Amino acid sequence: MERNEILNTVNNVFIDVLDDDNLVLTEATTANDVEEWDSLNHIQLVVAIERQFKIRFASQEILSWQNVGEMVDSIAAKLNL
Amino acid sequence: MEHPVNYIYNKIAVLNPMHGKKLKKNIGFFDDGYYELADAFFEKYTGILHAQNKTLDYAIDCYLQMIADVNAETIEFLRTGKYSSTTFEEVNQRVYARPETMEYYMHGLIMSQFLWKHHYQVVDFFIHNLPSYKGETKSYLEIGAGHGYYLSKALEILDDKTSFTVVDISETSIALAKDFIKDEQVEFNLQNIYDYNSDKKFDFITLGEVLEHVENPLQLLVKVNDLLSEDGVLFLTTPTNAPAIDHIYLFESADFIQDMIHVAGFKIGKEVDLLTEDVSPQRAAKLKIATLYGAFVKKDKSVYL
């Protein structure tokens, strides 16, 4: 799976969990840029992304992401890209 | 003067922006009644903290430590559909027998009383309905008094001649409740409720967020039924889908709680089922969002136990 494909898939998960069809993510997007991305939704996003990619994040990873790009890094590493 | 809760919200927004964002959604909901109760609560609590050479900032750190636990438990819950602990002994080893965990957990829970909308809403439900039982309540029992806030309100609302009894398994809770209420009228029993026996029957029993902490909540409700006087009232609260480091029994929806209340020989009077997040009921079900159920119940005399 290409990196931009991962980003697109993550974008679709965000749209579903945050219930916002107009949401467009870039690798630089942070929680500050997305109003509904709060601590509750962060947890929902983490678990939905795990299900989507059939992967499992470690607790430290979940806390360490500064932006969507770092989230994509974690996913790519687990998919052995 | 700035409301203490605003100071707390602003501090949390700096220390944990994602959680701060979530909490700030509550602010629009809070009315004058909320600020009146919350200001009095935090004034008292800050005094208790100062007496222990602690500050409100210390309590905020404790709260955020508890939130980190809740978040980790929630992720595990969404992955597995289960709470991570299933026995009392497991929770005892993990939480109750660890003073350093109990310390931040208790302070975190105290803070949540007025930081979480549903905790405020359910205490508001209690405060508004308790006066209607004042006339018949000569004896009040609270099982698991926690930080003592419900008890302090019962002391304010009920008649001066009412007897007040607390049974709590935690020394930490009893010490905090004593600090909170400073009232010698209350008899405290450091005891497991299953070991508590009394010839006296109580006219009003409060069982706030206890059922989720035991392995067999039905057994506890039956015990409570036995401690309640013939026309007595039980006020109980318990959450659904609410993973936490010390929660054992999972209620998947209010229906399961209501069924258990009926099986234990009670009939339900006024009740609430409060969503813990600002989402539609449909989304709440889809995302398994916790609710906090609360009800005033009485013995169902048509049932023979």
Structure, explained:
The complex is a heterodimer of chains A (about 80) and B (about 300). Chain A has a single domain, classed as ACP-like (Non-ribosomal Peptide Synthetase Peptidyl Carrier Protein, Chain A), CATH 1.10.1200.10. Helices cover about 60% and strands about 0% of the residues of chain A. The relative contact order of chain A is 0.20. With about 80 residues, chain A is mainly alpha-helical. Chain A has four helices and no strands. With about 300 residues, chain B is an alpha/beta fold. Chain B is built from twelve helices and seven strands. Chain B has a seven-stranded mixed sheet, sandwiched between helices. Chain B is globular. Chain B folds into two domains: about 110 residues, no CATH class; about 180 residues, Rossmann fold, CATH 3.40.50. At the A-B interface, helix 2 of A face helix 2 and helix 4 of B.
Notable characteristics:
heterodimer; A: about 80 residues; mainly alpha; Non-ribosomal Peptide Synthetase Peptidyl Carrier Protein, Chain A; about 60% helix; B: about 300 residues; Rossmann fold; 2 domains; 7 strands
Which SSEs are present, and which pair or pack?
The complex is a heterodimer of chains A (81) and B (305).
Chain A: H1 3-18, H2 39-53, H3 59-64, H4 68-78
Chain B: H1 4-15, H2 17-24, H3 32-51, H4 56-80, H5 88-96, H6 99-115, H7 117-129, E1 139-143, H8 149-157, E2 163-168, H9 171-181, E3 186-190, E4 202-208, H10 217-227, E5 228-240, H11 254-263, E6 266-275, H12 281-287, E7 291-299
Parallel strand pairs in B: 1-2, 1-4, 2-3, 4-5
Antiparallel strand pairs in B: 5-7, 6-7
